[in-house]
Amino acid sequence: MTFGSDQMNLLSISDLSPQEIGAILDRADDLKARRGDPSARSILAGKSLAAIFEKPSTRTRVSLEVAMTDLGGHTLYLGKNDLQLGRGETLPDTARVLSRFVHGIAARVYDHKTLEELGRHAAVPVINVLSDQEHPCQILADLMTVRERFGRLSGLKVAWIGDGNNVCNSTIIAAAMMGMEIVVASPPGYGPNRKILDHADRLGGGTVVVTDPVKAVSGADVVSTDTWVSMGDEDDAVRRVEAFRRYQVNADLLSHASDGAIVMHCLPAHRGQEITDEVMDGPKSAILDQSENRLHSAKAVLERFLV
């Protein structure tokens, strides 16, 4: 597990500085406000993005492809059966060859080491659009949504309820970078990775990890959750669902949050498991705004790395 500032690639949210995150969010706000402005089509005119997808996707694929189109660029969707990797071509060779054709590579992969190897050998920027370690593009959309609702990030309390997964990891790191308090509530054995917590501490955070979801949500401004069974964890599904039963985000749990709290979920949601219909479709839900902001933040990221 590696971290650090990589100015060419976006593999971890900490490859950006807090100032760069702020600038990307500002740009995303601007692009959202003037969507449909024909002048935006000149931003990435003539640029191509190779989008490698080892995992299925709705929001990530659609947001990337529409973002590139809105900015005048072109996306090549490359599923797991569309490349010669399955026939033995190496990642370094794939990275070197794609670098001769395209201006950037976005990859949605199982193993974060795949991204690191692509990043080492590609001569163009590599963007993490999901790995088992982090999901930085999701977190930028989340931060954008929180800032839209509260007008700020610093000083807010985030409660993460559920699995200490890749989205949780990036949330922890981003909270440390942007001056947000974060409390994670997970069942024993399913909390965030110790190396993620240590990395966040070095960035100035102080993540609190508990097993009591009520304690985590108490006074929270943002209540965030995700599926209990991520892609790749299907073999452990029965045990996970049992372990997470009391970590459902429902009206009773949400009653312990601050009066103006919002609820977030990166989707897809398993309604009736990690979140109830009442909360997901209720007045505190920011989930659809959060989903839409994947598009606008993706535009700002693509402009930052491909121009």
Automatic annotation (TrEMBL):
Compartment(s): Cytoplasm
E.C. no: 2.1.3.3
Reaction(s) this enzyme catalyzes, per UniProt: carbamoyl phosphate + L-ornithine = L-citrulline + phosphate + H(+)
Residues of the Aspartate/ornithine carbamoyltransferase carbamoyl-P binding domain: 9-148
Binding sites annotated in the UniProt record for carbamoyl phosphate: S57, T58, R59, T60, Q84, R108, H135, P136, C137, Q138, C266, L267, R294
UniProt binding sites for L-ornithine: N166, D226, S230, M231
Assigned keywords, A-Z: Cytoplasm, Transferase
Domain Aspartate/ornithine carbamoyltransferase Asp/Orn-binding: 155-303
GO molecular function: ornithine carbamoyltransferase activity
Stretches of the chain forming a coiled coil according to its record: none
Superkingdom of origin organism: Archaea
HAMAP family according to UniProt: OTCase
Family: Belongs to the aspartate/ornithine carbamoyltransferase superfamily. OTCase family.
Name of the featured protein: Ornithine carbamoyltransferase
Organism expressing this protein natively: Candidatus Methanocrinis alkalitolerans
